[in-house]
Fold each of these.
Amino acid sequence: MPTSLEEIAARLDDDTLAIVSVSPEIRYPERTNQRRGGHLILLHGRDRDGVWFHNPSGVAPHQSDVYLPFATMSRFHAGRGMTLSRGTS
């Protein structure tokens, strides 16, 4: 079952990151994309309108600490992702 980007982002906090599947075309968010999914990025922050992420194979300025609004980001998101939480001992 697909999960929205907003649902995954709502789980982000100081101890939780997310890995989501997006189109590799996210390297150029101003361009129209032809597909969704097939490329993984790391979400590390959010606000009510969008997310911050790292895209290791991105092209500057869309590589490190990139911010995109949900409306833009959702065009590339495949509806798949997972969260990673730091365990507490």
Amino acid sequence: MTWCMYALGGGWGHLVRALAFARIASRHHPIVILTNCPHLPLIQSSSSWQKEVKEFGLQLRFIPIPSEATIDSVCHEMPKIIRDIAPEVLFVDTFPRGIVGDLVPILPKMQQCQRIFVHRDISPNYLLAYHIEEFVLKHYSQTVSVERFTPLSHIGTTSEPWVMRSSRELGPGNQEAGIVICVSGKVEEQELFEMVSLKLCHLTKKITILSARHPKIVNKNIIWSRHFPGIEVINKAELVVGSGGYHTVYECQVTRKKLISITFSRLYDQQKRRCQKNNIAYFESDKMIGSDKNPIAQVLNLLLREIDAHQVQIKHPFNEKNEK
């Protein structure tokens, strides 16, 4: 019987969590992943992923939902999609009601199906506004928290984070990628990371920008990588600079790489809280924007303090006045 993974969310996180589970489970069960991640073609074309599918005979297919799909279209199409799959087990990532409430009319009709809520940390505002704990207890067979400190961990079980490679699979890392800048999120956030990269490349020998989108900046010390899975690049980092997103944080934990985080405000995710709970050096990007001081200069000064504390070799200290 088929298992179905509902991984709608728009960014990398929901799909990569689903893949982290499916790459193991689909060796034994056919799995269908529903996703609206715009980076699905990049993953499917990855030589690493294609090799894994062939080597292990993964019984896995995707149903892409257009990222520009309207609320009405998702709510209209989702019942038919789920009905046609007729899953024995349904996994729902992060949003138990569906990304736009599209699962609300479906779940009561799926009593013969095991319904598993995959629980990542999420905004308390969402939990309160939609009475999520009550909803999950009523409509789900089981809750699996895929990180510690989730607000509903008391009603289910907690697993290790779902990432694409275990430390055993990766083996010992090295530092050949230099400082790895993990870029994800919005376009303006990519621009911030690229500016940080451009400044840091004058202070260290090698920067690797890990990003699905081609960076706009050009420098002989900067290398662009869109390798999937990104954790294999992180495993070669001397130091990682990235957001406080789920995979950035936990892939650094698995690879035992130092992460310096620039946290961003999200409607549902809690990057700042994740960094706090995991004892990660961070600062908040939204406190930089709108300041009288140059935000890039502030970012770099904070980064360099952490880099210095981590004893990463740099050529010279950054001087904020050069950025004014």
Amino acid sequence: MSGFIDADTHVLETDASWDYLDPTERDLRPKTIEFQDEVHSGYEQMRAFGGRSKQMWIIDDNVSRRHPGDGRASGFGKEYQAEAMFLTDPSVRLRDMDELGVDKQIVISTFFIGAELERPITEAALTRSWNRWMADRVADSGGRLNWLVVPGTRTMERALQEIEFGRANGAVGVMLKGVEHGMYLNDPYFYPLYAKAQELDMTIGVHLGFAWRRADVRDISNLLPTPPAYVDNLAALMKGFYAVLASDLHTRFPRLRWVFLEGGSTWVQMIFQQHQRLISTSKPGSFVNSGNRTSVTIDPLDTAELMAEKKMYVACEVDEEIARIASITGRSQLIFGTDYGHNDVGCDPTGLELVTKREDLDADLAQAIVRDNALAAFALH
């Protein structure tokens, strides 16, 4: 087996991420605020979700978590070197990849997972700066650090320009959340973006995340206000998946690939089960398991064929029932990401190796998950 393909890794933003702002837009530069390190209510229950963010970015009147120092928000998980997480010295990250047996990584923003940028000019300016910063960070990686370009979707013309820039500078995909600015991913508003991604042979990377105006909804120094709030992030990913599954995007953009990252894959069965009920009961007068009406038969779907037809890939997690899930998604549609760079609920730095050691997985399936499927999903060579 050749080296692993890590389909979901992260970079942590620094002040340098905004050094590429256009001179006319430098007043939009995010500011930093910092909190004292006292123990607050709910601290212990939130340790499993990354603990406390001691610094925050201030963008206009919104906030987003910032990782200071070495980036550790809590005291568990692999302790990454700062040079690797912030990409101040990409060679440190490459050496870490060698140690982990990783051939290539897909590198994804941390800042844009949860930041809700309401002003179009702010979103366009910050995404432009981030993309140029990222392109410089990975330029000398020899093709090992691949990345997802971030489009400012509030201004589609500039978003398309950023996608073109990203492709010309090593990006292999486009980062989106499952719900973008209140719009589902099957909204025709996004068609120009999908057309551009297809034209440039880029993948749409839908990452776990729920953008909210954090100052309005939570204790500002917590990563999440309460554990159930994590479900908002997962729900957005599921909505993105279903927007693609239940739409005709695959006929409009037949060469476009989709990956769904950092939410595990167990929920995929539930989506398919509900989708089968929906399409079986869509006609007037049809009911399922009704006590006083005639029930309809739920016609089973060939879910694996559907996933392949729509070019949909899902990242699984090492503690899931992978063999069973593969029977639903198809063996060619599961990939794996370690969440390298983060210390939180999605992180499993040695997960790729652990997949290959699972005795319940045959060698061909393990190889597909940790390498072959990701090569196809991101059109890597």
